[in-house]
Amino acid sequence: MIAITGATGQLGRLVISILLESVPANELVAVVRTPDKAVDLAALGVQVRRGDYTLPDTLADALAGVDKLLLISSSEIGQRVAQHANAIAAAKSAGVQLLAYTSILHADSTPLGLGDEHRQTEALLAQSGLPFVLLRNGWYTENYAASIPAALQYGVLLGCASEGRIASAARADYGAAAAAVLLSQGQAGKIYELAGDASYTLSDFAAEIAKQSGKPVAYQDMPPADFAAALKHAGLPEGLADLLADSDAGASRGGLFDDSRTLSTLIGRPTTPMAEVIRKALAV
Questions:
Q1: Cα–Cα distance between 71 and 100 in angstroms, integer?
Q2: 220-226: which pairs have CB atoms within 8 A and are 24 or more residues apart?
Q3: Within this chain, do residues 124 and 246 fall inside the same structural domain, yes or no?
């Protein structure tokens, strides 16, 4: 039996949809904080079990009988380590045979502040005695595509990544990678550095938006503090604004670049081009 935490999130749903192509629905467990949000998964025959990272007892019940677990990192930055520790402990108690964890690209050396909690979680896994595999996911292209409406409105794509090259991939690519690992044997101990086949700068990204939309869009690089301030002024919560500015600054130092093509090798096809993600975003 295969369980996926955060199963009603965007990545979790993608993984489940891919697994359903080759795994009977009743052999999949969707671990969710709010089962009411997974009615559609239950209708497909997927086992929906309540599991809250902050409530260890719910995790113990959710993971009963599970052989493989995809631990999708918590979205609650600042609380991730404690929450992941609960999930790891529950997995060990349940006798899980393989835990796959969605970490961050080059977690051991990334300049991104996001890396701290991922490094701590990887250390917990190493100490746990559980067989585990690390899916060190790079940036989702959709993270930048979310800025397209504002870029079109103002004719400017803001950032602080300078000329740092970003080897992002579509969320679906990372979902396919997770599914491939869960369906394969001999994965324990492996570390996958996952990123897109091609890289680009934010100037390139802005130029592609302009090309496809037919509207003028240019990239404006800013000091990280100014970029964070602009995001807060636009209405983003302080923590998220600071995180995005830190991530862009990390990109300027190579934190979102990798040219190993490990992701496309794992999923057996090229990763989704940046231009394709932009095309889909503009079509909405």
A1: 6
A2: 220/156, 220/157, 220/158, 220/159, 221/159, 221/160, 221/161, 221/162, 222/158, 222/159, 222/160, 223/160, 224/160, 224/248, 224/249, 226/160
A3: no
Helix (H) or strand (E) holding 3: strand 2-5
Q: Are 93 and 210 found together in one domain?
A: no
Q: Which runs of E-coded beta strand occur in 106-263?
A: 132-137, 156-159, 191-194, 218-221
What is the sign of the dihedral through the CA atoms of 212, 213, 215 and 219?
A: negative
Residue 119 lies inside a defined structural domain of this protein: yes
Q: Which two three-digit tokens encode residue 98?
A: 């393989």
End-to-end CA distance of the chain: 36
Give Cα 202 distance to the centre of its chain: 20
- The Cα 100–Cα 78 span in angstroms is 21
Total structural domains within the chain: 2
Residues 179 and 244 in one domain: no
C-alpha to C-alpha distance for 242 and 247, rounded to whole angstroms: 9
Q: What percent of the chain has pLDDT over 70?
A: 100
Residue 226 sits in the same domain as residue 124? no
- One domain for residues 188 and 217: no
pTM: 0.95
User: Which residue range is the domain that position 127 belongs to?
Assistant: 2-140+169-194
What gap in Å lies between CA 82 and CA 183, rounded to an integer?
A: 28
- Digit-coded pLDDT (tens) for 140-157: 999 999 999 999 999 999
